[in-house]
Amino acid sequence: MKYIDEYRDPDLVRALAERIRDLRYDKPLKIMEICGGHTHAIYQHGLHQLLPDNIELVHGPGCPVCVIPIGRLDDALSMARAPDVIFTTFGDMMRVPGSKGSLLNARADGADIRFVYSPSDALKIARENPDQRVVFFAIGFETTAPSTAVTLLQAQQEGVSNFFMFCNHVLVIPALKALLAAPDLQLDGFLGPGHVSAIIGMQPYEFIARDHGKSVVLSGFEPVDVLQSVYLIVKQKTEGRSAVENQYSRAIKYEGNLTALKLMDQTMEVRPFFEWRGLGSIPESALKLRSDFSQFDAELRFDVPGLKVEDPKICQCGEVLRGALKPHQCRAFATACTPEAPIGTCMVSSEGACAAYYKYGRTLLTDTMKKWAQ
C-alpha cells in the first residue's frame, strides 16, 4: 500500500458496491465482522448502507478490551491500589468499569496509574523506578502478544526484578469455535481480522469452511478492503462453495508471522480456561506466562481477588459481542450507557461496537457517504 487514499477511492467503492449488486444473490446473508476495527470502518464510512437489503453485517467479539470480564478488571484494580505500585495500561482500559470503579477512578483516588503505548514503555518505567513495582496490563489478541513476548525476554535478559505482567491475551480461534457452537446464532460468513491473521496466518480458519460450511475472507480495514471482502463472500455463495480467502494479502501470509509465533510460544502458554465477557468460560482461549517467566507473572506475585463478577443486568454488552444484538437494541444504549458514563466495555473501547454506533451510527449518512452517493 503506497497511499491510504487508494483504499478510500469513491470510484472504487461505488464499483465494488455495484459488483456486489450484480451478483444478484437474493437469499438472506448474515456476515459477522469479527474485529472491532471493521465495525468502526463500516459505520464511519457508511458501508452498510451500500449493501443490498438481504446482506446483514453483525458484530463479533474481536475487541480485546470489550471481552475482558469485570473480575479481571477487579484484579487489576487490586494490583493498582497496592502500595509501592506503578500500574501501566493502554488508554482504552482506563475508563472500563469494574465492580468498584475504574482505573481512572483509582488514579483520582491517588493510585499511580499511567497509560502507555507499549509494554516496552512500561519496562522503561520499571528501570527508572527501581524502588517501585511496575505492572503492565497486557491485553489483546494475537496482534499484541508478540510485543509482550519481546518485552518479557528483554526484562529477563536485563534482570529487571521489579517488572510484572498481568497477562490477559486472548485467542481468536477458540472464540469463533464457541460462537459456531451456539445454536441461536446463524451465520453465513466471517470477515476475518486482518491484524490477528497477519500473526496466525490462514490455516487456523480452515475448519470454519471445511466443518461448518461458512465462508471466511481475511480483510483489511479500509472501505475498499471491507467491500471487496464482502464481494468475495457473496461470490462464494453464488458459486455454492465455502472457502478461506485472503483479501489482505499485503499484510497476511498463509503461514502467518513465524517469528512472532515462535516468540509467543517461547514466553507464553495456553490457559486451560478463561472467562470472556458475553461468551462465558472458553477452554484454551487465552495465554499465561510460562513457568520460566514466573518471576514476572503479576498473578503469582500479587494477592488478587480472582473472582467471577456478573455484568450489570441492564448491560447487554455480552449479547452485542455474540452478535445476538445490535448495539442500538441494547436497552441502555445512549441513555444509561454513553461514552461519558459507560456501563459496558463496548461503549468504552475505541474498537467497541457500541462506541462505533454512538459515534457514527446515529446519522443516516456520513459526509463520506454523501460524497459517494453523488
Write structural notes for this entry.
This protein has 374 residues and is α/β, with parallel strands linked by helices. The protein has a domain at 70-170 and 257-301: HypD, alpha/beta domain 2 (Rossmann fold, 3-Layer(aba) Sandwich). It is built from 15 helices and 13 strands. The chain has helices at residues 10-22, 36-44, 70-80, 103-108, 119-128, 145-158, 172-180, 194-200, 206-212, 223-238, 258-267, 298-301, 317-321, 353-360, 367-373, and strands spanning 29-35, 55-62, 85-89, 112-115, 133-140, 163-169, 189-193, 215-219, 244-246, 268-270, 273-276, 280-283, 287-289. The protein has a 5-stranded parallel sheet. Strands 4-3-5-6 form a 4-stranded parallel sheet, sandwiched between helices. Strands 10-13 form a two-stranded antiparallel ribbon.
Topology overview:
Blueprint: H1 10-22, E1 29-35, H2 36-44, E2 55-62, H3 70-80, E3 85-89, H4 103-108, E4 112-115, H5 119-128, E5 133-140, H6 145-158, E6 163-169, H7 172-180, E7 189-193, H8 194-200, H9 206-212, E8 215-219, H10 223-238, E9 244-246, H11 258-267, E10 268-270, E11 273-276, E12 280-283, E13 287-289, H12 298-301, H13 317-321, H14 353-360, H15 367-373
Parallel strand pairs: 1-2, 1-7, 3-4, 3-5, 5-6, 7-8, 8-9
Antiparallel strand pairs: 10-13, 11-12
Helix pairs in contact: 1-10, 2-14, 6-11
